[in-house]
């Protein structure tokens, strides 16, 4: 019996030891001939097809995908001599429907599998503007890039690069492979819909990293495409993850991996090509054919030479004209700020050459055109005038910096930008119902009903609260008015035009000293001192609330100012008489009374009396009670404080009784400087 137990113990220990060894081997090396049963960690839009094909991205624009071996790999980084690894995989890039491609994919070794904060497009789903180039990344990547990104000093064409912590490659080369049979390098297209092999080998003893490419039908070449000396023991950590990232831009293609082999301590095993899944066929590229008259043999040489000269001349002229026509400008700040850059050529085609029939708006700094991209997405393109000067440039940079990173359902989304010679272009989501001021004062029936108006007010308040308190920085909009509120297809209000916006860190004092904005929406203390704060935004929002409820502009010739008129109605205990006649009495009295009274307190001359935007949202959502009855002490305090504050402020409204309410800031500057 004892002998039997000892035998049983022996076999149990043997099985456990063998299982532990097998597990260690699995963690050191693995091979996938297709990914049918693979338990990879997937992210973004990456997916595994039923046939075992790993798809990192599809032809969706500005998307990213990634896939990682789920267990960490233990690298021996204690000594550069013993650090060794090898990987071999087969990939394929299938062009999009128009036979275009963008952007590329990477094999990456990273301390983390979380790339949710990485950016698509030129960043390949690997880094973003804030972490690109940081030594703390501890990332090694081999990029297979198909789009030239000047900001990362890319080579002109499809290329392969070795990246350490940054998308500016340590070493890169155009995609080629060495033909041992012919003894020379041959070019290799990456985006063809064909299978391509790649080997990545690192020898710590020599500190040598080799990258080798070849078509699927060619054995591993004897000469690598890239060979660089690098000490990865100073870059990699002991525990790392291995996998792939990929991304698309405004143009896109499919990125696939068909099979993958990895070995941490030796040469990666070869894949069984016969077991790899098939790539989907590329879309057909239709080339129109032309029928021509048959040329006599005696004329062929003369005609070919003459035609060649003509075609070369015309082609050269066309290239020069097109280059000038679509020439763009790049500057250093663009590498740090801003969203996706969109080519001028695409915008020119989208707006049909900026034709007048596509014009949907015009302001002091330029015109706005409707456009349709090749993806059928509708856009609005703001084209700043050539002669707007330095002020237009400052406004353009401000919009790119402010809008590029803001994300809120009630803010107009900036999709991209472009610069060409003296032209500055901003690309937004198209708002089919235009600006609120045009709808609010339209004579077309029916006008905005009360429920649509209160929804717009709540939406804009929510967006402004996000700017003041909920984003990573404080944003002063500085020009809140119906003309800068755009309406989508469902008449939801979205705050736009961030040309005057300013950003500040939380904890600092958010204020500016430039007198900008629109007369009628400028807080009294701002007119006195020229200092804008979040409270001056609240003032403008208060006037905006009154304007939406009353259907009257803040200042109109031969009429009492809007705020004074609402106060008069309140004093007469008939505040609802201030409602917009276009509503025809169809409103919720409690809501209208709340909007009018809250609008007055937001636009109070004393900034200390105004609520914050968080309090405004609480009142509008009913989470806090705003009750000011005609006999309340709060109303008396309001009247006294309003009169006292009003008497200390220059009566700006009287200066514009005979003028339009939208005055240039040069007029205001003249007034503030005593008419000089």
TrEMBL record:
Query: Do you know which Gene3D superfamilies this protein is assigned to?
Result: 2.60.120.200, Phosphorylase Kinase, domain 1 (3.30.200.20), Transferase(Phosphotransferase) domain 1 (1.10.510.10)
User: Where in or outside the cell is it found?
Assistant: Membrane
* Residues bound to ATP: 382
Q: Which domain of life is it from?
A: Eukaryota
TM ranges are 299-321
Instruction: Give the signal sequence positions.
Output: 1-24
- Which SMART domains does this UniProt record tie to the protein? S_TKc (SM00220)
Q: Is Cell wall biogenesis/degradation included in the keywords of this UniProt record?
A: no
- InterPro entries in the record, alphabetically? ConA-like_dom_sf, Kinase-like_dom_sf, L-type_Lectin-RKs, Legume_lectin_dom, Prot_kinase_dom, Protein_kinase_ATP_BS, Ser/Thr_kinase_AS
Give a yes or no for keyword Thylakoid in this entry: no
Membrane disposition: Single-pass type I membrane protein
Protein kinase domain span: 354-626
**What keywords is this UniProt entry annotated with?**
ATP-binding, Kinase, Lectin, Membrane, Nucleotide-binding, Receptor, Signal, Transferase, Transmembrane, Transmembrane helix
The entry assigns this protein to a family as follows: In the N-terminal section; belongs to the leguminous lectin family. In the C-terminal section; belongs to the protein kinase superfamily. Ser/Thr protein kinase family.
PANTHER family per UniProt: PTHR27007
Designated name of the protein: Protein kinase domain-containing protein
Look up and give the organism this protein is from. Xanthoceras sorbifolium
């Amino acid at each position: 019996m004892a002998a039997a137990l000892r035998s049983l113990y022996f076999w149990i220990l043997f099985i456990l030891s063998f299982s532990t060894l097998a597990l260690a081997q699995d963690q050191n090396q693995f091979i996938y001939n297709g990914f049918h049963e693979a338990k990879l960690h997937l992210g973004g839009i990456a997916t595994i097809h039923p046939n075992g094909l790993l798809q990192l991205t599809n032809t969706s624009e500005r998307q990213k995908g990634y896939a990682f071996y789920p267990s960490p790999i233990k690298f021996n980084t204690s000594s550069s001599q013993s650090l060794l690894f090898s990987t071999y995989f087969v990939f394929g890039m299938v062009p999009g429907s128009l036979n275009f491609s963008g952007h590329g994919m990477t094999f990456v070794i990273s301390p983390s599998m979380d790339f949710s904060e990485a950016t698509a497009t030129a960043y390949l789903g690997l880094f973003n503007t804030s972490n690109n180039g940081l030594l703390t990344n501890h990332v090694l990547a081999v990029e297979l890039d198909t789009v030239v990104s000047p900001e990362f000093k890319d080579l002109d064409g499809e290329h392969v690069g070795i990246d350490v912590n940054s998308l500016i490659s340590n070493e890169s080369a155009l995609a080629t492979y060495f033909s041992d049979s012919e003894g020379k390098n041959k070019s290799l297209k990456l985006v063809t819909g064909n299978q391509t092999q790649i080997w990545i080998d690192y020898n710590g003893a020599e500190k040598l990293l080799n990258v080798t490419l070849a078509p699927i039908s060619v054995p591993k070449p004897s000469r690598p495409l890239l060979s660089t000396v690098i000490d990865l023991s100073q870059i990699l950590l002991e525990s790392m993850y291995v996998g792939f990232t990929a991304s698309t831009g405004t143009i896109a293609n499919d990125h696939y991996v068909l099979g993958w082999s990895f070995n941490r301590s030796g040469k990666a095993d070869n894949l069984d090509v016969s077991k790899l899944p098939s790539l989907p066929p590329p879309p057909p590229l239709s080339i129109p054919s032309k029928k021509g008259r048959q040329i006599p043999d005696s004329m062929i040489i003369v005609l070919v030479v003459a035609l060649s000269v003509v075609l070369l001349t015309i082609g050269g002229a066309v290239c020069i004209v097109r280059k000038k026509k679509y020439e763009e400008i790049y500057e250093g700040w663009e590498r740090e700020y801003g969203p996706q850059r969109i080519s001028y050529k695409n915008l020119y085609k989208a707006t049909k050459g900026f034709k007048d029939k596509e014009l949907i708006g015009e302001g002091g700094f330029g015109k706005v055109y409707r456009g349709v991209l090749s993806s059928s997405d509708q856009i609005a393109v703001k084209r700043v005038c050539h002669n707007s000067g330095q002020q237009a440039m400052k406004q353009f940079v401000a919009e790119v910096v402010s809008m590029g990173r803001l994300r809120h359902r009630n803010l107009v989304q900036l999709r991209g930008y472009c610069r060409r010679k003296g032209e500055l272009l901003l690309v937004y989501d198209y708002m089919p119902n235009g600006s609120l001021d045009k709808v609010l004062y339209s004579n077309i029936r029916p006008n905005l009903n009360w429920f649509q108006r209160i929804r717009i007010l709540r939406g804009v308040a929510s967006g402004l609260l996000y700017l003041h308190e909920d984003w990573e920085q404080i944003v002063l909009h500085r020009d809140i008015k119906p003309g800068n509120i755009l309406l989508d297809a469902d008449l939801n209000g979205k705050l736009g035009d961030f040309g005057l916006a300013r950003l500040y860190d939380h904890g600092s004092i958010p204020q500016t000293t430039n007198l900008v904005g629109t007369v009628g929406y400028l807080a009294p203390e701002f007119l006195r001192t020229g200092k804008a704060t979040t409270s001056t935004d609240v003032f403008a929002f208060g006037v905006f609330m009154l304007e939406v409820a009353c259907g009257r502009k803040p200042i109109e010739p031969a009429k009492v100012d809007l705020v004074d008129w609402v106060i008069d109605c309140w004093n007469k205990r008939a505040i609802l008489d201030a409602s917009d006649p276009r509503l025809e009495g169809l409103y919720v009295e409690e809501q209208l009374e709340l909007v009018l009274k809250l609008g007055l307190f937001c636009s109070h001359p004393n900034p200390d009396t105004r609520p914050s935007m968080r309090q405004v949202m609480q009142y509008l959502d009913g989470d806090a009670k705003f009750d000011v009855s005609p006999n309340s002490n709060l109303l008396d305090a309001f009247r006294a404080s309003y009169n006292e504050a009003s008497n200390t402020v220059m009566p700006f409204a009287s200066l514009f009784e005979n003028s339009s309410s939208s005055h240039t800031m040069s007029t205001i500057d003249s007034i503030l400087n005593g008419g000089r």
